[in-house]
Amino acid sequence: MTLNQIIKGQVARITHINGEDAISIRLMEMGLIDGEQIQLLGKAPLGDPLEFAIRGYRLSLRLNEAKCVEVEIV
Amino acid sequence: MQQKKMTIAIIGNPNTGKSTLFNLLSGGHAHIGNFPGVTVEKKVGSVTWGDRQIDLVDLPGTYSLAPRSIDEMLAVDVLLGRQKGVPQPDAIICIADASNLERNLYLFSQILDLSIPVVLVLNMYDLARSRGIEIDAQALSQKLNVPVVCTEAHHAKGVNELKAAILEIGTGSSHQPLALFPEVFYAERKLIREKIQENQENSPPDFLVDRLLLDVGGYVESYFEHHTHNGLMDDLHESRSRLKEAGYAVPAMEARMRYGWAREVLKDVLQHPPDQRETASDKIDRWLTHRIFGFLFFFVLMFFVFQSVFTWAGPAMDLIETGQGSIEGVVESVISPGPLRSLVVDGVIAGVGGVLIFLPQIVILYFFIAVLEDSGYMARAAFIMDRLMRSLGLSGKSFIPLMSSFACAVPGIMATRVIENRHERLTTILVAPLMSCSARWPVYTLFIAAFIPNIAYFTIAGSPVVTLQGMVLFAMSSIGALIAIPVAWFLKRVCFKGDVAPFVMELPGYKWPSPRNVIYRVYNRAKSFVVKAGTLIFATSIIIWAAGYFPGDHSEQFQIQNRIEAIDASLSELDEQIAAADEDKPAAMKELESQKEVLAAEQSALFERQNHVSSQLVESSFLGRAGHWIEPAVKPLGWDWKIGVGVIASFPAREVIISTLGTIYSLGGDVGEEDESLIGSIRSATWPDGSKVFNVPVAISIMVFFALCAQCAATLMVMRRETNSWFWPVVSFTYMTTLAYVGALISYQVGMLFI
């Protein structure tokens, strides 16, 4: 499954980042590396973007960007 | 012995308090400019510490040194000493957020690869400790083999320690590059380097060859793609596929290696509290980004900000206006009527005062923006608004700059600096002047009061709630924002095609804003507004004054003015005599009264004559000639030459139209937008054939023109400064003037069908 599919409060482990484009490189630079745990904290009032906890900080991603991240539920 | 001047670059992730620390280190004496040819701002602060001369260069906040645009390449070029006009840094200060060290070390590990002496600053140390994070800075320093300094820039703590560390490093210790990557990578790097040299390129630094290999589709790759023709790109692809076969696929390899290193470095150095999932900041966030409450809070907050901008600014604006009036009074009592007085009063004081009047609004708006930014709410505002803004082809980061533009586009355009993506920033800058700023209100107020009937559609307890005048005012204020939607769409889809900006944004923890920081930022913005806009308005108001003054013969005007002022003096003298006169002598009293009447009659005749002369002078001036010259162009909009003159004179600043119309319609320049006599003259103005100039479609056409046109020299100048190019102000001026003309044309022509 991909990161846009997890539900609020769920913790997932990243398995892979799809793509080699600017967005996926940026995601990796921000610390989204395979093996890392990520938690969905909440959504913006209109359902997009999403707020995640990763590596002890808060990161916001759009659904479209979260789609590039393959995860498995812990 | 005189020591060599040191250049020190400051770099760090966004939201790490970099600017605050830079301001502390430079003592607020920074020169701000643009790097040649790019939109990025260059901040250089020259300081003397001990016996050392130091130039501090502030680089834009960045998460990584992998350049994807010319602006990001700039930071790399400065660090590598390849940027003209900036010497290669002797040392680097890398500022990291102590509460988020693991991610911040990613950039730091790239900086280590540059082999330039570096000091690592753990800023916001207090925030990290309050979250239960313990960092052993000394152990970290030993592990990294670089000095580590803990600071709290918000409270100006740790600055002296940092200065000491920099001075010490200046004496020369250096470190080896990290060499994090596997052997096979360095072998490939060697091959690629040989290939580049074959093309007789100067041998680039190792760091750039690394970037070429690692950044797929990045700036370095596209640079070499355009500058080499010996099959370097094919070799590059082969190198990358060999790396992939060896199990080190690009680009994932770099992130994995660097984050692996960061984790290893922090293992025994940093202690996290056992459970750090839910912080106080998160709890606040659950409410402030809540589906219903979050939106509600956001809109109440925005409403409060705007309400405050308008109501709090009122008294200060009145004060400036009164001050302006009394300065005019002083000048008029010192200088007798003549070209000099006209220049000072009608040119300089009126022009500069017209701009300074907006200062209170800008200060208040900037106070709120600084508080919202410093507290961490601004990132949430972008988070909340992103979905809505995306339908315009923009992102949440554009919301605040566009919102500020409703008060004035000048601070709005300055606020676009929070947008990292160049194309998104340019789109926001280009549509910002369409937001209906407060300078348009006088125009709306005048024409609505004169031509839109005051019909109430809906009343509550006898007081009108929805009126036709109110609806027209609302329509005029929103037309620009509505037009901005297709304009932004067009810019994004047609001009800046194929550039999707990711919305990967850090949401910093909430904190109390620091008064020092807020005051500093408000002061800086206000100063730059007064200086930049002030000098420009000063110059343009003199030009417009001269165009409206020359080449006419003003001697009769001055004679009349002299006579009027003499009568004024006699009248007040008579008033005094009347007050002092003995009430028992009615004959003497009557004599005084009749003298007064005669003088008053003469004065009112003189006023009429003066207005006639003034309007003739305007008509024969360069400005008036220009008005006649453009009459064929403005006639389809329903305008006569006088409106044309008003519009031309308003190009430096739209508010000018009121005083210009006042002058042309023989009332003297000293009228306000609620002036009954101005409304009266406008209503009764006629074409040479006797038909009325103004009707509802003409009024609407003028208002639409003012709503859409780029009539603000200050905005265009700020645009030039922020984009470091004349191209964008010219584009903006051209497209907005065209829109304004077409909009006015449609309003008039369609409006006339219903009359």
From TrEMBL, chain A:
InterPro entries: Fe-transptr_FeoA-like, FeoA, FeoA_core_dom, Transcriptional_repressor_C. One of its GO terms (molecular function) is transition metal ion binding. It comes from the Bacteria. Transmembrane segments: none annotated. Keywords: Iron. Residues 1-73 form the Ferrous iron transporter FeoA-like domain. Pfam families: FeoA. This is FeoA domain protein. It comes from Gimesia alba.
